[in-house]
Amino acid sequence: MNKVYANANEALDGVISDGMMIAAGGFGLCGIPELLLEAIKNSGAQNLTFASNNAGVDDFGIGILLQTKQVKKMISSYVGENAEFMRQYLSGELELEFNPQGTLAERMRAGGAGIPGFYTKTGVGTVIAEGKEHKDFDGETYILEEGIFADLAIVKAWKADDTGNLVFRKTARNFNVPAATCGKICIAEVEEIVPRGSLDPDSIHLPGIYVHRLIQGEHEKRIEQRTTRKKEEA
Amino acid sequence: MPWDRNQMAARAAQELEDGMYVNLGIGIPTLVANYVGDKDITLQSENGMLGMGPFPFEGDEDPDLINAGKQTITELSRTAYFDSATSFAMIRGGKIAAAVLGAMEVDEEGDLANWMIPGVLVKGMGGAMDLVAGVGRVIVVMDHTNKHGKSKLLQKCTLPLTGKKVVDRIITNLGVLDVVDGGLKIVEIADGVTEDEIRGATEAKIVN
Fold first, then answer.
1. Above 80 in pLDDT, residue A165?
2. Measured CA angle at A164 (ends A160, A165), to 5 deg
3. Read out DSSP for chain B?
């Protein structure tokens, strides 16, 4: 079993195809699979659907695939940072399905756990509930949401061993864990692949069973909103 | 004098009790953290963190450490990180005691609208619908009227809802109102504001 590939383009070879539904990790620009997104751009795959909390910015993240018009549909909770996204959406070139953030995360988690649907209070009485089954439990109304079963998951972690066990860093974990689990195939990009035995088995955030292909690379890790305080305020 | 942004935030901080796990929204709610004083409050950031610290010093920014507004932040000695599904499981599971949020409209039933204005570019609801449906107590902090002088406390929300019957308490520049059976109840009036002023600025039914 060799999960380690030389680079993102090779890791996508034989996996990527037109019309795929891809679950992508990341929150804003934090913990996004930037190398695999670049490789998807290089692959030229068309009509892609992305389940991803955000859509990147114009020149980074999923934004680069909007520039090349490779994306047919986004399933997201917040897309405010991307002018090209808005242009394509308003002109009808791009489909958009808003999911509440927790509903999106749970849909991925459920899909990865073999659960086709679940009931939640989130969105009851709003546009999100329109057309969905409503059911009362113990006097409270819930709506049915469906699990996401993606053709491909792309995620970014901090470290991996060569069996695909993943460790994330700080808030860069975010959607990477649920996204990884809901893909038929999951490709992970990491900052460092370490020899097996060097990660603490008690501190693995995502077991390698979920990870089929693995690459190591240099990450730009762009900051979206740089906010600081002055030393004298402390 | 009506309360300013900082006074509204300070008033909202009084709602928080020692030991609470709390989620603060963007805008005035973010300022609430400055007024919790000695109370032992743990802030949740729904992108996957409990124990959110202040902004970093210049040069210490970490691209792997941001809040739900995508701003660089810091961790504390109590901090724990987790994934987005776990984060919203604790929100939906009722583990977060309170959320302090901004709003465009609130109505006398406690319906809340704060994510979408039809005809204006829609950015998305983010985690707001999950928060208002899941947390123990929803506290709205907002100006009493909009920039056209029109009441934001309505009989019925006109904008698309974030949640139905979800708001518990509203803190505005004029005072504090609770959502109760039959309407809104004035529980506090800002210094120098009269009850007539608050009633005049409120379209929602006020009950005693």
1. yes
2. 65
3. ----HHHHHHHHHTT--TT-EEEE-SSHHHHGGGG-TT---EEEETTTEEEE--PPBTT---TT-B-TTSBB--EEEEEEE--HHHHHHHHHTT-S-EEEE--SEEETT--EE-S--TTS-----TTHHHHHHHSSEEEEE--SB-TTS-BSEESS--SPPSBSS---EEE-SSEEEEEETTEEEEEEE-TT--HHHHHHT--SPB--
Q: With an 8 Å Cβ cutoff, are B133 and A229 in contact?
A: no
Range A70-90 average pLDDT: 91
Which chain A residues contact residue B55 at CB under 8 A?
227-229
Instruction: State the ipTM, two decimals.
Output: 0.96
Q: Which pLDDT value is given to residue B161?
A: 97
Q: Smallest Cβ distance to B63: which of A76, A123, A221?
A: A221
CA distances A91 to A64, A95, B28, Å, are 18, 10, 34
**Cβ contact, residue pair A30, B70, below 8 Å:** yes
pLDDT in tens, B149-192: 999 999 999 999 999 999 999 999 999 999 999 999 999 999 99
The C-alpha of B120 sits at a distance from chain A's nearest C-alpha, in angstroms, of 11
B46 is an active site residue: yes
Taking the CA of residue A74 and the nearest CA in chain B, the distance in Å comes to: 12
Predicted confidence band of residue A127 (pLDDT cuts 50, 70, 90): very high
Rounded to a whole number of angstroms, the distance from the CA of B104 to the nearest CA of chain A is 15
> Which pLDDT score, from 0 to 100, does residue A233 have?
56
User: In this complex, which of A127, A172, A225 lies closest to B72 when CB atoms are compared?
Assistant: A225
Q: Kindly tell me if the per-residue pLDDT of B121 is higher than 80.
A: no
